[in-house]
Specification:
The complex is a heterodimer of chains A (about 220) and B (about 80). Helix content of chain A is about 20%, strand content about 25%. Chain A contains 6 helices and 11 strands. The radius of gyration of chain B is 16 Å and the shape is elongated. Classes of the chains: A alpha/beta (about 220), B alpha+beta (about 80). Chains A and B meet through loops of A and helix 1 of B.
């Protein structure tokens, strides 16, 4: 499966994402932000980083890149799109995902190993509901806000929540003050997803966890099923 | 050429950790009676002659300068120098 990874000015995790996708069995295809073309890929990943220096707001300027028009059309047609960290921020700014990401409570850039409880498996999560994934988190503006987090959960649009190692969702496990401990969400159709933690950094046992494959590689699992 | 001042603020219901941090620092400087500190952005720009200022500024503010999910904005014409 050919999966595109978009490079924006200021992206920094695109090579990690491409490498992880290759390890998971995909053929990564780098997509340039200035091209309004997705090169015929079957899924798109928007990687982490600091596009346009996070000027104005995180993701606010990247969403006007030519490639984003193509990504929006692709998403509209049901194409799978995953935004990781800054990619999540870009998708929220573009209106492809609900809510927004704001400055962390405590103003700290948080980087640590994080446990995530799967809420709603789907296009971008192959692990069953209730399972716990161990995935690194690293962000300064990762506090998710949305008008009605309960309605989002009832609609099945909460992908993963921050949790303790045993799956308990509580404030102590929430790294940035996200509403309802929400770490990742999907659009109503489920084909567009975004999360602040970095599944592309958790695909090799040598680095502590392979749980990221359940998210980053979910489209591969479905394609081969 | 009309100069426009635009202020973008987080909506009242959105937590502002920066404002809280500043507010917590004030008593250390001896300012005890300060509350409700909120931090936003101030943007100034010139609009070309003959352009519909209101429509243009509303468009820019809504589409780029503010994220309507978390922010609100106000704008005004700068006073002539």
């Amino acid at each position: 499966m050919r999966i595109g990874v978009v490079q924006f000015p200021g992206s920094c995790d695109e090579r990690d994402a491409a490498r992880a996708l290759a390890l998971l069995g995909a053929e990564p295809v780098m997509l340039w932000h200035g091209e309004a073309d997705l090169a015929g890929v079957e899924a798109v990943v928007l990687p982490g980083g600091f596009t346009y220096g996070d000027y104005l707001r995180t993701g606010a300027i990247a969403r006007f890149a030519p490639v984003m028009g193509a990504v929006a059309d692709f998403a509209e047609r049901g194409g799978p799109v995953l935004g990781i960290c800054n990619g999540f921020q870009v998708l929220c700014e573009a209106g492809l995902l609900p809510g927004a990401l704001t400055r962390n409570i405590g103003l700290r850039f948080v980087h640590r190993t994080q446990h995530l409880r799967v809420e709603t498996p789907g296009v971008w999560c192959a692990a069953p509901a209730g399972s716990v994934l161990e995935v690194p988190v690293k962000n300064g503006e990762g506090r998710y806000v949305v008008d009605d987090p309960d309605a989002l959960a009832e609609a099945g649009q909460v992908l993963v929540r921050y949790c303790q190692p045993d799956g308990t969702v509580d404030p102590a496990a929430n790294p940035n003050g996200s509403l309802a401990s929400i770490a990742g969400v999907t659009n109503a159709a489920g084909n567009v997803a975004g999360l602040m933690p970095h599944p592309e950094h958790a695909v090799e046992a040598l680095l502590g966890s392979t749980d990221g494959g359940a998210i980053l590689g979910a489209v591969l699992v479905r394609a081969s099923a | 050429m009309p100069r426009v001042h635009i202020d973008v603020m987080l909506k009242d219901e959105i937590l502002d950790p920066q404002g809280q941090a500043v507010e917590r620092a004030l008593p250390q400087l001896g300012y005890e009676a300060i509350s409700g500190v909120r931090i936003g952005k101030h943007i100034e720009l010139d609009v070309g002659e003959g352009v519909d200022v209101a429509a243009t500024v509303e468009g820019i503010a809504h589409e780029l300068l503010a994220n309507p999910v978390i922010e609100r904005y106000t704008w005004r014409l700068a006073e002539e120098a």
